[in-house]
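Reviewers asked in the last cycle whether our approach scales beyond single polypeptides. To address this, we selected a multi-component target totalling 354 residues and predicted its structure end to end. The input consisted of the following lines:
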Amino acid sequence: MPKGVTVWLTGLSGAGKSTIAHALQANAESRGRLVEILDGDIVRENLSRGLGFSKEDRDTNIRRIAFVSHLLTRHGAFVIVAAISPYAGVRNEAREMIGDFVEVHVDCSIDVLTARDTKGLYAKALTGEIKNFTGISDPYEAPTSPELVVSTAREDVAQSVGRIERYLEANGYINTD
Amino acid sequence: MPKGVTVWLTGLSGAGKSTIAHALQANAESRGRLVEILDGDIVRENLSRGLGFSKEDRDTNIRRIAFVSHLLTRHGAFVIVAAISPYAGVRNEAREMIGDFVEVHVDCSIDVLTARDTKGLYAKALTGEIKNFTGISDPYEAPTSPELVVSTAREDVAQSVGRIERYLEANGYINTD
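The resulting structure, written as structure tokens, was:
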């Protein structure tokens, strides 16, 4: 049985965190490993209702995700966090707490995201209709030394997921085929 | 590997939930099973800071404990919840969500608890210095059909823990020696 791990996907809204999370989950589950995805929305619904998008509230929300990921990881679970998690400080707290922690920067430029804008959020952020929007009106502190960077503008989902899986295999978090 | 389970200890403040939780944990861990205790204080610190003791806030706190217990249980963990959890409705929600759920009523009369009063809380509750105190100024809805009732006034910790362990063994949640 491989040890527990948290794969922490950080990146801007629309960069592809959830898509990668679900593809990684599907692959791992086809190989018999139960995977828990904790995405920002699930956690806001179940653990953080009432919190807003100030730095303090975002940090509190991320600390709660980290606490739950920590518990699951030490019980051997394969956890994928898919949350913007814009602040480096609290991501580093999560790394310290969890230990078996693989930070993946899901990277995509604001220009590409604004052009894609599949949910129309960037247009609303640019006009100010949505406030505190990470990358537009709120900061995003990119990881300085993540375990991996995947670029959803330059590689397809299968390539990104494949690189994450190879990292996890190499570090004993999933069995090799 | 036995399946995951949540042992949910409900009862009044001072009834002995934490004592039983730690004894049960020690026994199970001596038999090689990692155990997670989620007690009311840990969860208020990590998931529910800012919530108070109204029915709504208590229910929200218990729903968060249930959410985390559910995730841990489905990943195979042995979870012990030690929380007053005074309201039957939200305990039943937890039962539904978690599935592998063993509700244990840690029973002790108000008279005995008021006489013991190891932390001096009942004295303060009786004078009104502490408000919303379960069993004095706030309701406690005892379980009507728990898997087990343990009486900390009539049996010692080893007896209570032994009965819980036999229930868990009989239901495949811990291996028999």
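The mean pLDDT of chain A is 94. We regard this as preliminary and will revisit it once experimental data from Aim 1 are available.
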